[in-house]
Amino acid sequence: MVSYAPPDTFSLRADFLRMASRGRKLARPGFVLQAMKAAPDAPVRVGYTATKKIGNAVARNRARRRLKEAARLTLGDMGLTGMELVFICRQETATLPFTALCQNLKTALREVSQ
RNA sequence: CCAGACGGUUGGACGGCCGCUGCCAAAGGUAACUUUGGUGGAGGAAAGUCCGGGCUCCACGGAAAUACGGUGCCGGCUAACAGCCGGCGGGGGUGACCCCAGGGACAGUGCCACAGAAAACAAACCUCCUCCCAGGCUUGCCUGAAGGGAAGGGUGAAACGGUGCGGUAAGAGCGCACCGCGGCCUUGGUAACAAGGCUGGCAGGGUAAACCCCACCGGGAGCAAGACCGAAUAGGGGCGGCCGGCUUUGUGUGAAAGCAUGGAAGCGGGAGUAUUUUCGAUCCGCCGCCCGGGUUGGUCGCGCGAGGCGUGUUGCAAAACACGUCCCAGAGGAAUGGCCGUCCAGCGCCCGCGAGGGUGUGGACAGAACCCGGCUUACAGGCCGUCUGGAUAU
Question: For the whole model, what pTM was predicted?
Fold first, then answer.
């Protein structure tokens, strides 16, 4: 297995609001993706969201961590640049098989980066 | 062995690959930082945010009182508590044990539905009685009047204490015995209270999670507390420089004309107030430097503490003290993980008389957010100890 560092994250509330209002939205089993183009050579920046709809704090943490790990692996594989992404957890994020989650992520990212 | 009571404890194990984060060290780099290595990294409830504290800011002469809120048998523990421990009283259970907001109803006010004659201050619905009075006669009964009584019936959660015997016309603490209740005394206990004796024949309902009274406790808000740093933009104040249409006026200079002047007012021009016109109101150039406030953000607060573990002493215990030893998470759209394998409990199915074997499934409640002490609530299963009732064997 190849080692990838996790992508840069953003944490400002303003960034999340901007992505929510103007980003391109894509719903897939296991997550919802919001994407925006940035400067073409800039590194990819990512944010994660888990709402209370998912469950209690333990369930939210687990869903976010799986999504984070999936994003780390697939983004490292694809080597994208110049994108800003927000991943929103859904209820099946914690239960979907990990390989399926990664596969869904890959196809969604491909569609968004065209 | 079965059923149960109480208390404690635990909250899967090992490994592989890839990550996150605090600290330490080394190397590189002016630095931000990067790389490598080492090391630490969720809970018994981290939860609910219900009490009590520490800490911080605010308020305030010290403080006390009123109001409001809380607590409420007794003694102890504690920094403190609505907590804990040990007692007492009441209730439940065959028992181990469990449950209880458990001060005051002679300070005052209120309430007590329905039923019932009557619900608190006196009475009598059905009824019981005829000693006493009058009348009648069949001479021991009837009728009437006048009374006596509250035992029995009935209503209710509750009806001037209960049961029994005596007593009586019938009855009544009227008398007696026992129980209950009040008062006094003695003994035991720090106390709540208990036991015993004497005495009163019964004083007089319940409700204070109704107001209230009494005693004790409490100033308010919270780490988004609070402290510091502080970019860009806009706005505030100050200083300096420069440019500028017209008029009036002030000031300076000068004998005067004049010259200087961002001091002041007006005109003009411009700006925007949804649009057009008119009127009215408001505002007023550029550059540089400095000062103060301060938003996003950053740093601190923030991990040595009423600290954990072990041993000993005191104490029935809660706990206290002494000695030794350890340093044990610090995130910030929020780290403490993701994926996989092997195993171990548990559970299902199959095989076997059985010990057991095979196979599948498979680990609850739940995530630190300033920190402690409690309480409450959630929780698959495992383990340990003490005790009770029953069964069997000896």
Answer: 0.71
Which nucleotide across the nucleic acid strands is nearest to A61, CA versus C1'? Answer: B367
Check whether residue A16 has its CB closer than 7 Å to nucleic acid strand B: yes
Domains and CATH numbers, chain A: 8-113 (3.30.230.10)
ipTM of the complex: 0.90
CB atoms under 10 Å from CB of A113, counted, come to: 15
What would the mean pLDDT of A3-14 be, rounded to a whole number?
Answer: 72
- Closest nucleotide relative to residue A5's CA, C1' based: B19
Q: What's residue A1's pLDDT?
A: 42
